[in-house]
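Q: My labmate handed me this sequence with no annotations at all. I'd like to see what the chain might look like in three dimensions before we decide whether it's worth expressing. Could you predict it?
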Amino acid sequence: MGRTTPAAVAAADDDGQKTSWPEVVGWVTLNAALQISSDRPDVSTDFYSETTTLPTDYDPNRVIIVADDRNVVVRTAVIG
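A: Here is what I predict for the chain of 80 residues:
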């Protein structure tokens, strides 16, 4: 949804750990971050505005959350 990810990253990694959170689209960013931290305490969450350029490097320890100006998640949060 707006961000290209490798097919293997779209659902789960080799260990079966969650790598994307489509369910948080429409949530307030704080609630999304809490859910992601609950699912994957080993990763950090980075927040970006929908108008900001997203990082192009892949970081397996980072979840990218894209939100609008009301702090509502507008894209599937993904590892990257």
